[in-house]
Amino acid sequence: PQYSADWGDYISFAKHMRDKADDDGSDLLVVDTGDRIEGNGLYDASDPKGRYTFDIIKEQEIDIICSGNHELYKSNSSEDEFRQTVPGFKGSYIASNLDIYYPDTDAFEPLAPRFKKFTTKNQGIRIIAFGFLYDFNGNANNTKVQPVEETVKEQWFQDAIRDRDVDLFL
Fold first, then answer.
1. Which terminus in the chain has less CB density within 10 A, N or C?
2. Which residues form the Calcineurin-like phosphoesterase domain (predicted)?
3. Can you tell me the distance from the alpha carbon of 13 to that of 6, in angstroms, rounded to the nearest whole number?
């Protein structure tokens, strides 16, 4: 019992750690690499999966967030990710090699921006962050995961890694 926690505990912990970093002039980056609807110790047991998690996680300040494979197994989960989580973390959500079917355009388009360039608050570290998902192929047919080996050949990626105004790639 002394080691149990829930989303509220995690949100509170991250807030206190961020405040502590601000107080001493350091930077804290909170990164969420996915598997929010299952596959971790904090997901909910709802049906459909993640029904409550989507509302709770919006309370968390996250610097970089991307999808894991668990958000892609079922089409309704990836649609929820696209319609709720991506807009809830606009500017922080990245999807370097993940596309979703857009009914409006009848085509596959990026789930979110391919990368994020930002500067940390306290130390001014210039970062370019990517949000790659491993070469996963168990996803529903409304999403496409491009192999990393192909993605890194694309012009947007080549331009990003040649940016000279960067201190760190994440």
1. N
2. 8-168
3. 11
